[in-house]
Amino acid sequence: MSDPIARRYQEEHHRFLRENRPDVLEALQRSGDLISYLSSVGQTASERLEHAMSVHFSDPELQKLPFIEKVQELQSRQLEAEEVIRHDLIHQPVED
User: Fold this and answer.
1) CB of 91 within 8 A of CB of 16?
2) Can you say how many angstroms the Cα of residue 21 is from the centroid of all Cα atoms in its chain?
3) What distance in Å separates the CA atoms of residue 8 and residue 57, rounded to the nearest whole number?
4) What is the DSSP letter of 65?
5) Which residue from 5, 37, 81, 95 has the highest number of Cβ atoms inside 10 Å of its Cβ?
6) Is 5 helix (H, G, I), strand (E, B) or coil?
7) Radius of gyration of the chain (CA)
C-alpha cells in the first residue's frame, strides 16, 4: 500500500483488534480476509480524511482568514476529522 495515511489507519485498526477484539481478529485470520479487511478499513479512513479536508479547505469563511489563522484552523479541523474517523472506523470492528 503506497498511501501512508491509509497504512497508518490500517495499522492502528489492527492494533485495536489485537488489544480489544481478538475474537474478530482471529475470525478474520481464519477466514483469510484479514489483509483485505485491514486494507479496506485503511483506504476508507484515508478517503474520508481527504474528503473532509477538501471540504474544509474550500470553506469560504476559512479562505477569508489571515494565513496563520487559516493554518491553525485547518490543523484544528484535521484533528477533529481524525477523531471522528477513529471513532467511526478505527476503533470499531466491522461485523458481518
Assistant:
1) yes
2) 18
3) 22
4) S
5) 37
6) helix
7) 16
CA gap 96, 83 in Å, rounded:
24
Dist CA 68 CA 31 (whole Å): 50
**Residue pointed to by grid coordinates 485491514:** 38
Whole-angstrom distance, CA of residue 76 vs CA of residue 36: 31
Average pLDDT, the chain: 92
Helix (H, G, I), strand (E, B) or coil at 16: helix
Alpha-carbon 13 to chain mean position: 9
Residue 92: pLDDT above 90?
A: no
- What digits encode the pLDDT tens for the residues 11-60? 999 999 999 999 999 999 999 999 999 999 999 999 999 999 999 889 99
Q: What are the contacts of 50-55 at 24+ separation with CB within 8 A?
A: 50/5, 52/77, 52/81, 52/84, 53/77, 53/78, 53/81
pLDDT of residue 96: 47
